[in-house]
């Protein structure tokens, strides 16, 4: 008697994220991770340590690190990342561990403090819509400006819907576009993220604003 094998298809909601991540890894290793790590000088000098309170309260340091992270992502055209990966980049680590004027002699920086500074810096980018967290469980941050799939989706929604009678005159409202995008990407797409996308599309002359918060395609 021949045995019957029954196969069931299982949908993995994180599969697209994992595939995108695998495609980006060769670029990341070639341009970032395979380069030799150099310990910043001030990390080897105990006299330049700082207290735990200095790290958490130094908003200027967090802002500076946030700007450095943005520059790093832009220069290397990185489309997604894990926080721990940024923590291994020498130039960013050097900024995150920069001693403050309130540092006490003999104090040291812990890995937890460094992790918190990076977390706060990335949070600033989240608030500005420069990055978004694609799935809480995956821990993968997506760079908005480098997300071609998101830009193409927003553009296609505007193009297709503006052909319909209800959107032909005024164009598509921002919240309508947001709702349609979220049907594909989920709630991880905030209004600030989408606003950054439509602003980029408008700068590229792919779309035009007909009135406040309404957009149409050429």
From TrEMBL:
Localization of this protein: Chromosome, Telomere; Nucleus
Residues annotated as domain Stn1 C-terminal: 61-218
Domain of life of the source: Eukaryota
Pfam families in the cross-refs: STN1_2
Keywords, comma-separated and alphabetical: Chromosome, DNA-binding, Telomere
PANTHER family, per database record: CST COMPLEX SUBUNIT STN1, REPLICATION PROTEIN A-RELATED
Name used for this protein in its record: Stn1 C-terminal domain-containing protein
Species this chain originates from: Ranitomeya imitator
């Amino acid at each position: 008697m021949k045995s019957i094998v029954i196969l069931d298809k299982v949908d993995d909601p994180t599969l697209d994220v994992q595939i995108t991540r695998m495609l980006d890894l060769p670029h990341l290793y070639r341009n970032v991770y395979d380069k030799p790590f150099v310990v910043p000088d001030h990390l080897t000098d105990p006299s330049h340590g700082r207290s735990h309170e200095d790290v958490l309260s130094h908003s200027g340091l967090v802002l500076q690190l946030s700007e450095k992270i943005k520059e790093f992502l832009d220069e290397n055209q990185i489309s997604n990342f894990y926080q721990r990966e940024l923590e291994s980049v020498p130039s960013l680590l050097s900024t995150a561990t920069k001693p403050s004027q309130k540092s006490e002699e003999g104090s040291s920086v812990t890995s937890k403090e460094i992790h918190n500074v990076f977390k706060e810096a990335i949070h600033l980018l989240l608030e500005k819509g420069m990055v978004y967290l694609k799935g809480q469980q995956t821990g993968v941050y997506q760079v908005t400006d480098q997300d071609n799939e998101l830009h193409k989706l927003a553009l296609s929604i505007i193009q297709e819907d503006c052909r319909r009678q209800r959107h032909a005159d005024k164009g598509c409202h921002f919240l309508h576009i947001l709702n349609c995008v979220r049907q594909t990407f989920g709630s991880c797409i905030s209004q600030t993220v989408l606003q950054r996308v439509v602003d980029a599309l408008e700068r590229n002359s792919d779309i035009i604003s007909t009135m406040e918060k309404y957009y149409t395609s050429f």
